[in-house]
Amino acid sequence: MTPSRVLHELEELAxxxxxxxxxxxxxxxxxSGRGGLCWVRGRPLVVxxxxxxxxxxxxxxxxxxxxxDLDAVYVPPLVRARIEGLRAxxxxxTPRVPRPRPGLARTRPG
Length: 110
Description:
Order of helices and strands: HEEEHH
Low-confidence stretches: none
CATH architecture: 2-Layer Sandwich
């Protein structure tokens, strides 16, 4: 599968799960980097630099898609492998033990 075909498949997958993808020029000095996933008004959005080569666009979009549960969606095997390769294992959250705030006395109800 050609890189442009992989990008096309990723873009179609994003559209099917409701993920908006936008390519914007980052050269204005306001934005830097390659792009990535963000949330605007509760909706997921991928913004990437319009000048990125296809391989970098694939990496940005596949990295964003790796954050979503895609088990119920058909994804071509090659594209799924690309996404799964970028899926980061999420560490289990460590339980937070509340600490007493300094200066406050702790008493038991009488």
